[in-house]
Give the backbone structure.
Amino acid sequence: MKILMILAVLASSVFITGCNGILGDSVSGVWRGKVLDERSVHYIEMELKERRGKITGTMSILKGRNDTLWKTDTFPIIQSERMNEKVKILVDLDSGVSFELSQDGDEMTGIVYEIAYKNQPDKTTLQRLK
């Protein structure tokens, strides 16, 4: 009986510690990058926490010049979805802004679009800050 309990504990700890491998690398951390639309570049920062596949956090709009950026507005993440290295994040900005990203280690690339508008999606690239 003790052996079965030990095996059950080992199996559950392998599953829990192996979740990031199943789901991809954790997106926890501070990410900074830009959104490129047809007319301009917008700088953003995301502070993300991932636990058991659920992503929470905020997205901030950055302003500045000459490598000096500061936060002007911060918005909460209201919904997230994770499938391997693919990440979908919905931010509570205006009518909703959706990010569809692919993670490769400390870089995420993808598209971002406003839910209420049928505009062409914009491209985004984010780097995890160390």
